[in-house]
């Protein structure tokens, strides 16, 4: 009798704590985001501050070797290689996602990935002693591969271990750590700290420390239960991992949902990138992530950061103080992304995407006006500062974090690695393209180049409004059914199982789906 009572109690307890944030889940999210995503952000902005000192080092090294000073054209080429090798490495890293996460698991991939970062950190940190600048350029490629893997695997891993009601909030955590990484690099890069002739090798080498911490701590945490059950077929390990992550023993519902996903996928098998691109049942999901990733990178976020210093100088900020203003923009970015973590579950993904791209679109349009008129109208330079801040807020709440959350949610287990590979490649390719093309665009169009970004934001808003569904608080299977109707395909499912599984709430769920499709 007592046993029955206890059982009753434990099932009540599991009902109460459905989807609560447990300590273990929070730690996994923090360790994987700090060890991986943080460094993506850190290395994006780490070479901005010490650029002049690093260029002097390139010049001096070349002079010591050849006895003649470096040609200015060659120096520009070397520097643009140093900057652009990072997103190019990111593209290579994205192409490695699919084989690695399928063979080594999500956690395994993150651990292997740390070796890239630690190698690059040692090489960059010792480059001045070794008197070689080639090593810095090589290390930027290696660091890019690291960031390419990290930017895809962390959201995938965290999305798979989160309960459905926390998936959005935990999915924004990697982006939060990317912005923290950018901010930390900006602070350490101040002239008074490490952004000087002596400090820059240390500034570049610091990136290895988070990797070392992750390498030591992450092995003690569980692997993704979905990977263990659906890809490895090991239900016992999946159940243990899930019980640890949820903090209670009764995980039958989630295991059943994974089994159901597994059955639905047996029909389709594993997706490679090619089969993903040609499979009709995932057509709209694929187009959606490509559009969102292109929108995210081509909406001009790099250009706004690039222009920020000049905008503040023209508004009368002293040259020596511009670096502190850049840090404050980095801080706004962190605070707004932190806000996104807390509001993504209540407002939903769609609203944040639309609002984020909307703010970016409006601020790009007004910024074009303000930059053109700032020589004639005195207060226009202050308006351009406001535009930069509004733009950063828009990008931080929607355009930056949500697309990665959506890749996790719109695809099932077998197609998710291939989808991240496509999304990640588009992300890094567009990043690389903006880096190369923007300087020419700016030379040719000046402030009008922001009109192009404005148009791209507008096109992305229109697409999201008509095509992208709301995914908050839905299981992966429910989201899959919504998209199946859009793709006009039938989903193969074990009907008997489903009848038992959704006996009561089935009707409500169907209603809910049909209403969300009309959005």
From TrEMBL:
User: Can you supply one Gene Ontology CC term for this chain's record?
Assistant: sarcolemma
The UniProt entry, under InterPro entries, shows: GLUT (IPR045263), MFS_dom (IPR020846), MFS_sugar_transport-like (IPR005828), MFS_trans_sf (IPR036259), Sugar/inositol_transpt (IPR003663), Sugar_transporter_CS (IPR005829)
**Residues annotated as transmembrane:** 21-42, 77-98, 110-130, 136-158, 170-194, 200-221, 286-308, 324-344, 351-373, 379-406, 418-441, 447-468
* Major localization class: membrane
Listed under catalytic activity are:
D-fructose(out) = D-fructose(in)
Localization in the cell:
Cell membrane, Sarcolemma; Cell membrane
UniProt keyword rRNA processing present:
no
Tell me the membrane topology, using the record's own terms.
Multi-pass membrane protein
Q: Where is this region: Disordered?
A: 496-519
Pfam families (alphabetical): Sugar_tr
Q: What Gene3D superfamilies is this protein classified in?
A: MFS general substrate transporter like domains
Q: Provide one Gene Ontology biological process annotation.
A: fructose import across plasma membrane
GO MF, one term, reads: D-glucose transmembrane transporter activity
Superkingdom, taxonomy of origin: Eukaryota
Keywords recorded for this protein, A-Z = Cell membrane, Membrane, Sugar transport, Transmembrane, Transmembrane helix, Transport
Matching CDD domains: MFS_GLUT_Class2
Record's family? Belongs to the major facilitator superfamily. Sugar transporter (TC 2.A.1.1) family. Glucose transporter subfamily.
> What protein name is recorded for this chain?
Solute carrier family 2, facilitated glucose transporter member 5
Per the UniProt entry, what species is this protein from, by scientific name? Answer: Ibidorhyncha struthersii
Gene that encodes it = Slc2a5_2
């Amino acid at each position: 009798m007592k046993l029955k009572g206890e059982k009753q109690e434990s099932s009540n307890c599991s009902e109460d704590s459905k989807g609560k944030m447990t300590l273990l889940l929070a730690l996994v999210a923090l360790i994987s985001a700090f060890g991986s995503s943080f460094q993506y952000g850190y290395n994006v902005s780490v070479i901005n501050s010490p650029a002049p000192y690093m260029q002097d080092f390139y010049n001096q090294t070349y002079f010591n070797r050849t006895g003649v000073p470096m040609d200015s054209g060659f120096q520009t080429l070397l520097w643009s290689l140093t900057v652009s090798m990072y997103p190019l490495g990111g593209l290579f890293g994205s192409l490695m996602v699919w084989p690695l996460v399928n063979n080594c698991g999500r956690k395994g991939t993150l651990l292997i990935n740390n070796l890239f970062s630690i190698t690059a950190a040692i090489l960059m940190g010792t480059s001045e002693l070794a008197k070689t600048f080639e090593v810095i350029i090589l290390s930027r490629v290696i660091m890019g591969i690291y960031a390419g893997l990290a930017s895809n695997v962390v959201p995938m891993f965290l999305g798979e271990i989160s309960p459905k009601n926390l998936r959005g909030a935990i999915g924004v955590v990697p982006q939060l750590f990317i912005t923290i990484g950018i901010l930390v690099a900006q602070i350490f890069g101040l002239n008074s700290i490490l952004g000087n002739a002596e400090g820059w090798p240390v500034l570049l080498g610091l990136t290895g420390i988070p990797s070392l911490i992750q390498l030591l701590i992450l092995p003690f945490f569980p692997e993704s239960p979905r990977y263990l059950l659906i890809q490895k077929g090991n239900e016992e390990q999946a159940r243990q991992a899930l019980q640890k992550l949820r903090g209670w023993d009764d995980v039958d519902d989630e295991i059943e949902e994974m089994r159901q996903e597994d059955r639905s996928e047996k029909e389709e098998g594993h997706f490679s990138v090619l089969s993903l691109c040609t499979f009709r049942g995932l057509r709209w999901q694929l187009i959606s992530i490509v559009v969102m990733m292109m929108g995210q990178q081509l909406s001009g976020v790099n250009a706004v950061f690039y222009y920020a210093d000049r905008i503040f100088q023209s508004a009368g900020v002293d040259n020596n103080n511009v670096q502190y203003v850049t840090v404050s923009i980095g801080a706004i970015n962190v605070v707004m992304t932190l806000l996104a973590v807390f509001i993504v579950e209540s407002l939903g993904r769609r609203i944040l995407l639309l609002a984020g791209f909307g703010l970016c679109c409006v601020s790009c349009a007004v910024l074009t006006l303000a930059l053109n008129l700032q020589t004639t109208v005195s207060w226009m330079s202050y308006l351009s500062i406001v535009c930069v801040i509004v733009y950063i807020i828009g990008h931080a709440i929607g355009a930056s974090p949500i697309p990665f959350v959506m890749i996790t949610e719109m695809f099932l287990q077998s197609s998710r690695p291939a989808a991240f590979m496509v999304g990640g490649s588009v992300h890094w390719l567009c990043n690389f393209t903006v880096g190369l093309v923007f300087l020419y665009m700016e030379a040719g169009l000046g402030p009008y180049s922001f009109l192009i970004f404005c148009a791209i934001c507008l096109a992305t808003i229109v697409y999201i409004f008509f095509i992208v569904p709301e995914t908050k608080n839905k299981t992966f299977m429910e989201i899959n059914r919504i998209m199946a109707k859009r793709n006009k395909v039938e989903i193969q499912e074990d009907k008997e199982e489903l009848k038992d599984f959704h006996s009561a709430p089935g009707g409500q769920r169907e209603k809910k789906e049909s209403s969300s499709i009309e959005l």
